[in-house]
Amino acid sequence: MNTRSRIAAALAAASLIALTGCGANAGATNAAGGDFPKKGKTIDLVVAFSSGGAVDTAARLIQPILEKELGTNVEVINKPGAGGQIGYTQLTGAAPDGYTIGATGSPSVVVSPLDPSRGAKYTRDSFQPLGRQVIDPTVIAVQPDSPYQTLKDLLDAAKANPKSMTASTTGLQTGEHFAMAQIQESTGSEFAPVHFSEGASQATTAFLGKHVDILVANVSDVVDLTKQGKARVLGVMTSERAPALPDVPTFKESGYDLEAGTTRGYSAPAGLPDEVAKKLEAAIQKAIEDPAVVQKMQDLGLQTSYLSGEDYKQYWAGQEEDFKKVLPLVQKTD
Amino acid sequence: MTTESVTATSKTAARVAPSVLAGIGAFAAVGVYVLISSVGLGLWTSLGPGPGLFPFAMGAVLAAMSAVWLLQELRRPSETAEGVDRALVIAVVASLVVLAAVMDLLGFQLSMFLFLMYHLKLRGRRAWPSSLVTALAGSVGAFYAFNYGLNVALPVSAFPLLNTIGL
Amino acid sequence: MDTLNELMGGFAAAMTWQNLLFAFLGCLLGTIIGVLPGIGPVAGVALLIPLTLNLDATGAIIMLCAIFYGTAYGGTITSVLLNTPGEAASAITTIDGYAMTKLGKAGAALTIAAVGSFVGGTVATLGLVMAAKPLGELGLLVGPPEFFALMVVGISLLVALAGKSMVKAVISGALGLLIAMVGIDPVAGAPRFTFGMDRLLDGVSFVAVIVGVFGLSELLSYRKGTTTPNVHAPNLRSLLPTGREWRRSAPAMARGTGIGFGLGLIPGMTGSVSSLLAYGAEKKFSRHRNELGKGAIEGVAGPETANNSHANAALIPLFTLGIPASPTIAVLMGAFLQQGLTPGPTLFTEHSEIAWAIIASLFIGNLLLLVLNVPLVGLWTSILRVPTTILTALILLFMVIGAYTINFSVFDVFVMIGFGLLGLALRHLDIPLAPMVLTLVLGPLMERSLRESLEISQGDFGIFTSRPISAVLIGLGLLIIFSPLLKLRKPKALNEDPET
Fold first, then answer.
1. How does pLDDT run across C251-310, given as a tens digit for each residue?
2. Residues of A in contact with C394 (CB under 8 A)
3. What range does the domain containing C85 cover?
4. pLDDT tens figures, B30-50
């Protein structure tokens, strides 16, 4: 008996040591006021795209400040797939207790519930917007050795030989897909879309390996590539030139009146208690407007344009109306 | 599908073990089910390869392999593996199912304590002290280790009465 | 020396006290899993994934890697002391290891095994350091079609090597792919095979499936008659081998390192093949070959070195190509994916700090294993003395916690139970489980790269044969599947290998 209980105790002790050891990293915070957030309880920040993309980078930038503001751990969790739908499903399926929040990007989050064939389990009302961070304009880029020097060259070639060039998106019905569809619709050019449904980092990798000819992406994805001479950006889809890409003409300058971009912000599952929502919203605002974060976003080529939860909600509703009109462009037609 | 193939073939090949036939039938049934439902998902859409394409291929592979396996068995039945300890399987599976069913109600500590006591004292016939020590360490001990060491919340009881006493 | 700089950076990152602690805990837990007879490395690693979910990616992967190669050593202890291997790769060590125990030289056998493991593991990790950069740079050449072709090769090797019947191996692989497909289609977003259950939208939990299929089904297939062994730890003084034993072990370790390293690079080869071949090499080349079987130190040094060299070398295809070489590595890859890291060529471009920190921790972990194992031999033997009933109950406890904590939902516990029964049925039907784990992990990646490839080619399947790299790879895959020659030469050990 003696040896047995001793061994059992030793085993239990060993596993206890093992377990507390693992927590050493996670439990290094304290001091939280009120009920939320509970001390030591981790808040999950769900990112619906893979690590390394712009959404992920932005979330990881605000994460330390959120931790400081909220006094507890905030963990970025990547749930890539289906152009964001997998992560959004996880976010809206979580309990609205404030311990799960997520990065939401439109059009993906706005559009995925609109197309019945996707079978999305959420609608706009499943989200409680907490704050908007940036608008990231869409760009179109070609390989550095590409013969096309201007946007017009490229689009004319794509019109003359439809589907002769492959172009990346970050998934079906994401911002890039919409942008591509709008370009095709208004210029008569035609590309062969390749959907990298896990996000911009996969699309960029494939582009760098020359597995796709054209990169349809956001400004933040191409700033570094341009500096390194690994991509030639032919046009940016904004009304004014992007400060990070001063030499790149806008679509309008090239004679195409098109604007597109991805809007990114943060949301929680709908039904948060007011108190919790207020705290989260305040913390997110602090984090987004933090000078260091703003500066880093600028280095990535992004202008911070904060909107409060309420305003983000309004904006979201407006986006839904806009995208409903162009949805047929990116829906399957069989 | 499953029962059909079992009855249809068992007459011709009495030597093939029934469990093997049931297995083949089940795999074939799953394969055919996947094959059919993946067509509904869409093999090819105007946007490119559809959601059903890959499952379709896998369903086809599964169904085809089941057929090949059946042929192999008919030609040369394989030896059946040793039987399992049915009492053990039933005891473990049933106790796990009960545990999973009551865990949200009774909370982790109480349900896991009872589960461990069942396996240690009733099934394992260990002495009381060793059973109690191990079961307490595995239920209450694990609960606190996970909650406070790892920040991993194991369920507490849904009954207010049990909840207030820390279960 | 770019590589050296980055490796130094990796060491700096790996040397934080938390990461050292994770490496230490991983070695400890891995050794325990290796020692415990009821639970193999596959289920063991899967079981411990939930413990790491709250850690940062570097710490989590460091710990899981340590668990992984820790198991490769743990199995030795029971082989030497008890004549029963704790895991398959150490089976051959029983012959001379146990003979040495009977001669009162258990301590020396364990020490030599630990040193051999250290040597093998360290050399293999050096190989990883050398290979990482050049292979990582090739990474951009690997587009979706090449990636798909690579996975075809990996899966066909495993299918060809696992179990006795290729048909059954293919069934196992197809089942894994089907399970991986449950949930929202990763490309177009349509729910697949969810049977209207919202819980399944995110797919079937990988950890719950592995723990069920490998762990629970193993417990369920226990038979009566297992008794608690009576083992004694060798005393500390006997742990030091004599000078003669050292001299005799050195060439055996060198041979073992080479064999383990070479075979570890090949997907589908498990550690048991390496240790078996290393034993064979000793039989052929050792100067004391006639003593083998009667307690020759070479019979421990060779296989044990090969075993650990293999385990570490098997990380090379994972890190550089994203191809898991064995079921245990596939589970490890699942953990990478859950941490948001995709092993493969892009790992070194996108997460180079994490990758190098993990590599550095492999060196540290191998050293830790050496320091840890020899003095702690008393602890391992006392674990062996824990009665089976208590062990079974505790393992069940960990399975339930493991399954529950992935999503904090009882649903996953039911999933685990269900897959435990499926695993039992598959074992009964003699269907190998290894291909299933591999496809379970690779399924989503494989489907995605297939669909991306077809989008690039606009529906033309010829893309897989018109691009040189993928054409070669696909050809290789077909050759493997259809080559009867390969089947003939298949080492016998693979058929009895519980790891596959």
1. 999 999 999 998 888 776 778 788 888 888 888 888 888 888 888 899 899 999 998 898
2. 11
3. 2-496
4. 999 999 988 888 788 776 788
Asked if residue B90 and residue B67 are part of one domain, the reply reads: no
pLDDT of residue B115: 93
In this structure, are B95 and B40 located in the same domain? no
Looking at this predicted complex, what is its ipTM?
A: 0.86
Tokens read off for C140: 């951009």
pLDDT in tens, A205-220: 889 888 999 999 988 8
Q: What three-state secondary structure class fits A171?
A: coil
Q: pLDDT below 70 — which residues of chain C?
A: 1, 37-38, 54, 86-87, 136, 162-163, 223-237, 268, 483-500
Note whether residue B28 is domain-resident. yes
Q: Does residue B98 share a domain with residue B53?
A: no
Domains of chain C: total: 1
Q: Which of residues 449-488 of C touch B (CB under 8 A)?
A: 450-451, 454-455, 459
Q: How many domains does chain B have?
A: 2
Interface contact B46-A333, CB threshold 8 A = yes
Of B75, B108, B126, the domain-final residue: B75
Best residue in B27, B39, B96 for a mutation probing chain C (most C CBs within 10 Å) = B96
Q: How far apart are CA A170 and CA C489, in angstroms?
A: 46
| Residue B81 forms part of a structural domain | no
B101 and B45 fall within a common domain: no
Residue B62 forms contact with C (CB below 8 Å): yes
Q: Which run of H or of E encompasses A322? A: helix A309-326
3-state SS of C130-161 is HHHHHHHHHHHHCCHHHHHHHHHHHHHHHHHH
A17 — pLDDT class (breaks 50, 70, 90): very low
B58 CB neighbours in chain C (<8 A) are 174, 177-178, 181
Please indicate, yes or no, whether residues B59 and B109 belong to a single structural domain of this protein. no
Q: Kindly report the backbone phi and psi dihedral angles of residue A140, in degrees, each rounded to the nearest multiple of 5, phi listed first.
A: -125, 130
Phi, psi for residue A136 in degrees, rounded to 5? -110, 110
Q: Global pTM?
A: 0.81
| Residues of chain C contacting B92 with CB distance shorter than 8 Å | 216, 219-220, 396
Q: Domain range holding B69?
A: 3-75
- In angstroms, what separates the C-alpha of A79 from chain B's closest C-alpha? 19
Structure-model confidence comparison of residues A231 and A12, the more confident one: A231
- Nearest Cα of chain A lies from the Cα of C15 at a distance, in angstroms, of 14
From B75, B98, B116, the end of a domain falls on B75
Asked if residue B42 and residue B14 are part of one domain, the reply reads: yes
The secondary structure of A271-294, three-state, reads CCCHHHHHHHHHHHHHHHHCHHHH
Contact call for residues A56 and A49 (beta carbons, < 8 A): yes
For residues B92 and B111, membership in a common domain is answered with yes
Closest approach of C304 to chain A, Cα-based (Å): 26
Same domain as B7, residue B53: yes
For residue B18, the 8-state DSSP code is H
Residue B40 resides in a domain: yes
Phi, psi of A132 (to 5 degrees): -100, 140
- Per-residue pLDDT at B98: 94
- Which of C224, C389, C424 is opposite residue B126, by nearest beta carbon? C389
Q: How close, in Å, is residue C12 to chain A by CA atoms?
A: 17
Q: Is residue B102 part of a domain?
A: yes
